[in-house]
User: What shape does this take?
Amino acid sequence: MAMAEIGPGQHGGSSRLALSDADREGRDLFVAWCRDIGCSIEIDDMGNIFARRPGRENARAPIVAGSHLDTQPHGGRFDGIYGVLAGLEVLRTLHEKDVTTAAPLEVVVWTNEEGARFAPAMIASGVYAGLFDKEYAWSRSDSDGKTLGDELRRIGYFGDAPCGEHPIGALFEAHIEQGPVLEAEDKTVGIVVGGQGIRWYDLGLKGRDSHAGSTPMRGRRDALLAAAEIVMAVQGLALDYAPDAVGTVGEMQVMPNSRNTIPGEVFLTIDIRNPDRTVLEAMAEDLREIVAKCAGRHGVEFELDEIWDKPPIEFDPDCIAAVEAAARELEYPHRRIVSGAGHDACQVCEVAPTSMIFVPCAGGLSHNEAESAEPEDLEAGANVLLHAMLALANRIQH
Ligand code: GLV
Ligand code: MN
Ligand code: MN
Assistant: This one.
């Protein structure tokens, strides 16, 4: 709750966009909390923060927990933050009980998970996993033209360590589910086995500015009208591939945005997702046709740019088993689940054994300031995280 007060939203949530002043303040608070329990801090050149609690065998790769501190513009108090602070709670608990593990333990904060300010999402964990080029990531710009690299420097989190070189023995990410399944089935813990595929698009539509009063309805080249049809068609596309597909237009800019000028230009974003790679590919093909058809109907030119193709992923069986064993031993009602949201864990799993722990959130609501979760459920998730980490950290090495 103290973290949530940094970059407060207007309706009880948080608005802590990546690499904003609020993000810096949140990072500073996290680092201070970690130093309080004697952790050392490493920051890499993507701004990822690793807080380390040594073990007895410090040549071993650390067992790591973590997530992100950035939020959506109208973000909640739990998305991301929970996974970071659950990791910190694990370290605090071991500190207070004076328990030393065999392998070292770490908590990681990944930069720019949300992708709300700098697209695509999960960019720094993506660089870590070798999925994005570092130069590409640094050059991504926000809507004011500020780049990720410059903003990292500005807030003082452009570290010395080369991103991708920090060893990770295993990564566990605790997170609210952000969907309705656990709550509906009265389960306390979700054993996350994988994540669905995601494709992100930038779409530019170019028609012609013209006078709203004197241009007849026929012969207009209204870019917003084409955009409106595309918004409807993206919904239709997701429904065509029901029940698992989703499709969203979340961002739109209308130019010149004047009441009495027919809009000559529109920029919009499209997000489509499916757990099955072949289905997602089919959706992507349909999307191209839909956009061409809607634009063509209004004499509008278009440029559709697929800026991100994130295939569906499966987590590591050994990490999944560690989470499942912890949930079983602690006697929390649990079930296996596939993540609808993207997560840093879905990037890091390409290069290190990884899995996730979900806990329910009220009404399945997320990316909303009203996002909330029960303290007992958050505690359960942190207990599962603790025991999964302990199991791997204390496993005898052969
Ligand atoms: C991350 O929040 C996502 O878009 O799934
Ligand atoms: Mn998140
Ligand atoms: Mn999110």
